[in-house]
Amino acid sequence: MKKYIIFASIGFELVGLIIGCFYLGQYLDQKYNTKGMIFVGLTFACLIGWLWRVIWLLRKMQKSEEEADLKNSEKK
């Protein structure tokens, strides 16, 4: 059950990042008159960071599952 909650929260993180990038990028674009370039750069930076976090989280979960399987096989 914990895994499902983690993956559901990942979706909410992505939505929050997109909304945050939209408003912050829009504000900075208007302030510096960059015609949307800050929004695009900020969005790509956030998406890359989000993807990095998802990969890290998947590796962490895989490692913990392997450790649990190893402990279960030692008990038998």
Describe it.
The mean pLDDT is 91. The protein has helices at 2-32, 37-75. The protein has 76 residues and is mainly alpha-helical. The protein starts with a helix and ends with a helix. Helix 1 packs antiparallel against helix 2. The chain contains 2 helices and no strands.
Main sheet attributes: strand count, strand direction, barrel closure: none
Tally of DSSP β-strands: 0
Q: Separation of termini?
A: 25 Å
What's the mean pLDDT score?
Answer: 91
Note the total helix count.
2
Spell out the key features of this protein:
single chain, 76 residues, mainly alpha, 92% helix, elongated
What is the compact description of this entry?
The chain is mainly α and 76 residues long. Helices cover 92% and strands 0% of the residues.
Layout of helices and strands:
Layout: H1 2-32, H2 37-75
